[in-house]
Amino acid sequence: MYKADSHVHSNFSGDSMEKLESIIERALELGMNEITITDHLDLDFPGEVNIFTLDLNNYIETLKKLKNEYRKKINLKIGIELGLQPHLKEEYREIFSCEDIDFIIGSSHCVAGMDIADKKFFEKYAKDEAHRIYFEEVLKNIDIFPEISIYGHLDFINRYGRSVYDDYKKINFEMHKEVIDKILKKLIEKKIGIEINTSALRYGLRDFHPCRKILKRYRELGGEIITIGSDAHRALDIMRDFDKAKDVLRELGFEKYCVFTKRKLEYKDL
Ligand SMILES: [Zn+2]
Ligand SMILES: [Zn+2]
Asked: How far apart are CA 266 and CA 149, in angstroms?
């Protein structure tokens, strides 16, 4: 069985301390065929200091060197996780034309100019309203950034809000069904994939990002471009809960998952 993790962070990300060498060693221990490093670049992240900047040249050169060093043992791929906000179109142009990048995750970490992990977002907007604003911005981003390979952790907003709402429940899927359908249809039409991101389980959500309901709907609508990612920020979490993720995908009728090389997708058996 082909083993790949398509969403992994190293200490090139402002929120990870993990060395690339430790990540690769762990991947070799796990007998993996490939691993894609997807460090953060979130331009214009709100707040005093932006920790989510990326020294792109150094990042790419370092990965190329390691890729070559380990080429006989594992396929190390160069990815990036871009924090999308509608006004950043021009700023990310350089990334979209960079030929060394294998895989681009577009993610919504900030919505309406606010960090959704910050309590203030849920203090400003009532829960369902916050969810609506989130999904509507995702929908907008798909048109603005059609170059992305996949949309990252599609219902990321589900992780937050618990700090403000004691009775915080998951997204009201029925309430937001229309916008979620629009998102999924647009992604399918533009051949942009999604991921099943297992990090939600580590955050105590008992589901993936996105949740099973959204994954099911994506499949029903004919979606088949899906990558599997741990969103590990430490080597220990690489490929965590992948067996569960693959079981869920099979249950929902998926037969394959995807990996990317130079932005081209390839299917692997689940
Ligand atoms: Zn992310
Ligand atoms: Zn990530």
From this structure: 12
Please give all residues whose CB falls under 5 A of ion ligand 1, grouped by chain where several chains appear.
107
Task: Tell me the per-residue pLDDT of 167-182, one tens digit each, with 9 for 90 and over.
Answer: 656 788 889 999 999 9
Q: For residue 254, give the DSSP letter.
A: -
Residues near ion ligand 2 (Cβ under 5 Å): 81, 231
Name all domains of the chain by residue range, CATH numbers in brackets. Answer: 4-269 (3.20.20.140)
What's the CA dihedral at 7, 4, 58, 86 to 10 degrees? -30
Distance between Cα 189 and ligand 2 center (Å): 24
> Whose atoms come closest to the Cα of 38: which ligand?
2
Residue pointed to by tokens 């992994």? 8
d(CA 40, ligand 2 centre) in Å: 7
Mean pLDDT of 98-106: 98
- Residue 169 pLDDT: 61
> How is residue 141 written in tokens?
């981003």
Write out the H or E segment, with its range, that includes residue 107: strand 103-107
How much distance in Å is there from the Cα of 81 to the middle of ligand 1?
A: 7
d(CA 81, CA 150): 10
Q: Compute the distance from residue 170 Cα to the ligand 2 centre, in Å.
A: 21
What's the gap in Å between 139 CA and the centre of ligand 2? 20
From the CA of 154, which ligand is nearest? 1
pLDDT in tens, 119-137: 899 889 988 899 999 999 9
Do the Cβ atoms of 159 and 166 come closer than 8 Å? no
Ligand 2 centre distance from Cα of residue 262 (Å)? 19
DSSP string, 41-74: E-TT-SSSS------HHHHHHHHHHHHHHTTTT-
